[in-house]
Amino acid sequence: MANKVIMYDSPEAAQLVTVTGWATKDGRFFGDNEHLARYAGSTHRRCDNNKDHAPYRKNAYCEPCAAAKRIEVFNAMPVVEWDGETPLNLFDTDLYFYDLEQINEHCFEHEVTPSKLQLVLCEPVSMYLFSEDYWEDCFADYVDLPGEIQTALNDLNAAIEEHGKTVSWSPGNKRVIYGRGSCD
């Protein structure tokens, strides 16, 4: 059979077949995957949880459901009292408060009381130590970190450990209640 000659225009070279499947309006074919074809061909979708919610862009999320989920996540966090010093983060945002005055200003500007703010206690972030693995993609398998670089790296790590101070803050997983002195 391998030695048989089949010409370009021969019926043995190709035949017309009919294929059934799902395609988008612009002709992208998805075989029997109706869901993927509908997703690829659409611009908006309805909420799976509540059909009464407004349609939203297909690559986004239902805002009312997302807001409810954020409230649920916040309310599930353990509650702690604020010490008045540790920075606070407005949950699910990049807004930080470093003292009561900043909270009061925010409340005044946005006409809200602190008890309505979803505040979480921040956690300190310190500098990371360097590992010799940092450069592993640079070296061949049989090459080690040069001695003078290893010494400098050890000195740098020792200085970082000795410094040991917080260099920034990140949102934690504990929500805050207020003691006295808040503007509620």
The best one-word shape is flat
H/E element sequence: HEEHEEEHEHE
Number of helices: 4
Describe the sheet with the most strands: 5 strands, mixed
Residues in β-strands, percent: 15-25%
* Count of β-strands: 7
Multimeric state: single chain
Low-confidence stretches: 180-184
Mean pLDDT: 90
Distance between the termini: 89 Å
Binned, the helix content reads 25-40%
Radius of gyration based on Cα positions: 30 Å
With strands numbered from the N-terminus, the spatial order across the biggest sheet is 3-7-6-4-5
The computed structural class is alpha+beta
Descriptive report:
The chain is α+β, with helices and mostly antiparallel strands and 184 residues long. 27% of the residues lie in helices and 17% in strands. It has four helices and seven strands, in the order αββαβββαβαβ. It has helices at residues 34-41, 63-76, 100-110, 147-163; strands at residues 44-45, 56-57, 79-81, 88-90, 96-97, 119-126, 166-177. The strands form two sheets. The protein has a five-stranded mixed sheet. Strands 1-2 form a two-stranded antiparallel sheet. Residues 180-184 have low confidence and may be disordered.
Write the layout of secondary structure elements.
Layout: H1 34-41, E1 44-45, E2 56-57, H2 63-76, E3 79-81, E4 88-90, E5 96-97, H3 100-110, E6 119-126, H4 147-163, E7 166-177
Parallel strand pairs: 3-7
Antiparallel strand pairs: 1-2, 4-5, 4-6, 6-7
Question: Which terms would index this structure?
Answer:
184 residues; disordered C terminus; 4 helices; alpha+beta
Short description, anyone?
The chain has four helices and seven strands. The protein has helices spanning 34-41, 63-76, 100-110, 147-163; strands at 44-45, 56-57, 79-81, 88-90, 96-97, 119-126, 166-177.
